Amino acid sequence: QVQLVESGGGLVQPGGSLRLSCAASGFAFSAAFMSWYRQAPGEKRELVASIAGGGAVTTYADSVKGRFTISRDNGKNTVYLQMNSLKPEDTAVYYCKTGLAATGGFWGQGTQVTVST
Q1: Confidence of residue 100 (pLDDT cuts 50, 70, 90)
Q2: Rounded distance, CA 59 to CA 40, Å?
């Protein structure tokens, strides 16, 4: 019933920007914390950013602070991740997830972000 569909990934050069979207359905989106995680090949899944239901409270990994911005539009049941000043180390599959923590909740299928010359 719960569905999370990511879009917006692609190939960009270092210093470029991408905007990821996650369209949600099947649950009370406006009341739910939402998160973006990422996983590079051979690496563990890591939390990138999270946002509270009302959008006023956000958290970011130290590695992306000042470069990434998480936001949401509760009228559209969509959460976004604006990624600026991209670096090669940002290359990963990015996943949308319900909730604040890695355990529990529901995951999207992921979208590939590749930052390379």
Answers
A1: confident
A2: 21
